[in-house]
């Protein structure tokens, strides 16, 4: 009877230890799952933060590129406008020089024409006497 009682106590103790072990195992598994869930959540949040930072950097880079492009375009347009302005000035200068040349040519032509009208005509010496001398042909 004592042995049976002792065996029963041992069985109860064994069962109690088994239950405690199972409970501890369940707690450990639960803690492990919770820890893994927290770790996944932390990694996800870290990835999201990194992704947001990358997107922000990309947007900032794009904005800088847009600003630089706009500055370049503005500079290019200003250079082009300056070039057109210089070309127009050169064209005006050429036109002015050409007009001045025409005016000068007309003035010189009118002076020549005036001088040609006022210039005495050479006297024609007829009868074979050029310059008043005999040619000896008769």
In words, what does this structure look like?
It comes from Platysteira castanea. This protein is mainly alpha-helical and 138 residues long. The chain has a domain of 86 residues. 85% of the residues lie in helices and 0% in strands. The termini are far apart.
Feature tags:
mainly alpha, 138 residues, 1 helix, rod-shaped, single chain
Structure in a nutshell:
The protein has a domain at about 1-85. It is about 85% helix and about 0% strand.
- The arrangement of helices and strands along the chain is H
Detail the poorly predicted runs: none
Give the CA-CA distance, first to last residue.
195 Å
Largest sheet: none
The structure class reads mainly alpha
Number of helices: 1
Q: Helix and strand layout, with pairings?
A:
Layout: H1 2-118
């Amino acid at each position: 009877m004592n042995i049976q009682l002792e065996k029963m106590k041992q069985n109860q103790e064994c069962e109690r230890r088994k239950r405690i072990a199972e409970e501890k195992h369940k707690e450990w598994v639960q803690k492990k799952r919770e820890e893994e869930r927290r770790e996944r959540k932390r990694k996800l949040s870290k990835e999201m933060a990194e992704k947001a930072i990358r997107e922000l950097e990309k947007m900032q880079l794009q904005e800088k590129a847009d600003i630089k492009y706009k500055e370049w375009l503005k500079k290019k347009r200003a250079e082009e406008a300056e070039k057109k302005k210089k070309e127009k000035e050169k064209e005006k200068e050429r036109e002015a020089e050409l007009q001045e040349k025409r005016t000068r040519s007309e003035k010189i032509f009118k002076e020549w024409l005036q001088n040609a009208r006022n210039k005495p005509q050479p006297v024609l010496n007829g009868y074979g006497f050029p310059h008043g001398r005999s040619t000896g042909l008769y």
